[in-house]
Fold:
Amino acid sequence: MEDTLTVDDKFSALIRHWTQRVEALKDDDLYFYNQPIEELCGGVKVRTHGREMLMFASYSYLGLIGHPKINAAAQAAIETYGTGTHGVRMLAGTLALHSELEATIARFKGTDDAVTFSSGYVTNLTAIATMVGRHDIVICDKLNHASIVDGCILSGADMVRFRHNDMDDLERCLKKADPRAAKLVVVDAVFSMDGDVIDLPTTVELCQTYGAYLMVDEAHSIGVLGERGRGIEEHFGLTGVIDLKMGTLSKTIPSVGGYLAGRADLIQMFRHASRAFIFSAALPPAQAAAAKVAFEVIMEEPERVLQLRRNAARFISGLKGLGFDTMRTETAIVPVMCGTDERAFTMTRHCQRDDIFVLPVVSPAVPEGQARLRATVTAAHTLADIDKALEVFERAGKRTGLL
Structure:
């Protein structure tokens, strides 16, 4: 009985902690999460709580949400297949659309084959847990996405973390690893909180030197890095140096899901050994069709990638010129450092009251004292949109005491 009460008290305390934290923010008008978007207005504007705001928190980096060709493909898929599938991919759930999507991804990424999953989070979990297990070693950058960390834990492999983008520390970890163990190095291409890019050339060199497989999460690099938006290999002028390329279908690609791309035999293994593939329902027809055509649009409209790069450069230089700290970003993810959680919430309130939709990232998602607004730029923003956002950030920064 006492043990039951102790467990009960623990769960009650946990629930109470989060309830009180959320309610305190709501009482101070500082709660901005889970806001219902009522309407997407012209690609870069949204309507929420009856107000139209400029969106600076979207992952639609190339502005493909609402693209007429992608919408038409999704609608046609519903007419042909309906709204769902018959089950898991291995049994009755594989449609011709899924095979076509995976072939398109493989062409786009320059690999033999690709396989898709129900979400990006699940893709990282299953990729790592399928590749490594007990007695193996998985080596991660300290700022890797939470889904990578969770995949490492789920795998049961020994997890080693190296200092962020520190190639000397990565080499130290590889040298220290048991030479008899299978080694997998996993890194983000673009880091989702800081917006900086992994040193891929050195990472590849070290993996080859010490006999480690390399997996790269390209969730935030597709459509962002490389002359044609094909990702980090194109960005560095390298071809075929990554063993396993992971990406999402819910950021630049306006759909849902995730994918793995690589050698034919490696992808074949995932189709038969990945629990997330075997036991998860297939992507709905409309989402598979939308994702397929989105990759085609990126190839057909390369000017979007150039416009995104120009917009990001203008926004970053503008914020720096005002005196904001944007850390090491060189992409469309732009952290605006605020320090304390309270200051990040207050900055957000000022920005949203001035009709700029931006959101705070606070502890424990980032270390205490490193709270920030994580602003994102898209190819759909006009120069006038960016200039307006800079004006609002400047006012908010002065009101909050950051400037």
Notes: The mean pLDDT is 95. The CA atoms of residues 158 and 339 lie 33 Å apart.
